[in-house]
Design brief:
The chain is of the alpha/beta class. The chain is 53% helix and 9% strand. It is built from 12 helices and 5 strands. The protein has helices spanning 5-13, 20-31, 41-48, 52-61, 67-77, 90-108, 113-124, 137-147, 163-173, 189-200, 238-253, 258-272, and strands at 128-131, 154-157, 178-183, 204-209, 222-225. Helix 8 (137-147) runs parallel beside helix 11 (238-253). The radius of gyration is 20 Å and the shape is globular.
Amino acid sequence: MSDSPAARLQVLFEGHRLTPTQRRIAHCMVRRAADAPFLSSVELAELAGVSQPSVTRFAVALGFDGYPALRRHLRDVAPPETSAKALANEYQQAVEAEIENLRHLAEALADPAPVERAGRLLAASRPLPVLGLRAAASQAYGFSYFAAKVHPDVRLLDEGGTMLADRVDAAVRAGASALLCFALPRHPREVVDALAHARSAGLTVVTVADSAFAPVAAHSDLLLPAAVGTGLAFDTACAPMLLGRVLLEAMCDGLPDAQARLEEFDVRAAARGLFVE
């Protein structure tokens, strides 16, 4: 288990039944793990977009007398000193934050079992629907583009609207057993509704999300977290993208003809002069 601030917070929150508002606070604290021990209840409420009493109730739900007790606990378990490097500008800070997100992902992958299980589920689903709306659409497209080279039937679901449930139903009728979802902030209500519908239709839902406390968690059978960067005007998603590639690798391990398909594609591409060498 990693000893990073974010990992310690994840351990603290695990095993507690949290309300949606409390999950929002937990998510905010994980994203601001280094600052969490030093935030006042008012500051945390503002960052999470909740009321100050909600922060107090959150602390009580974790077993503390109140938020001051929770903050003292976080300070007690924090490293004695930080090695954070003073950076010149916000662009460097954003890059450093993404490097830290990737470091957390590497630590999480020390236990490969969840990703390996996800790979088996995705490999076995024929067809394989891949869902990602709005900010997550590019992640779903990237995964689908590469997955189609080794999986016989990948179906990209990157548009919402009334047809989304129909497309999920069509995949189920065609034999799908699992659905892969990429879910990133801000989380569209359509994604939550689509996952609830997919599970009710009998699909096993594998989700790549920015946090274990994301709104999609309640509708996912297997959730794989990968944090996003929040230092710029628009979130950055290097860790979710890399986790998607890791899932592709795990899925290939579950497809015995994956290598043959890749070699066949290379032969066809060379014959067509598809790529400039």
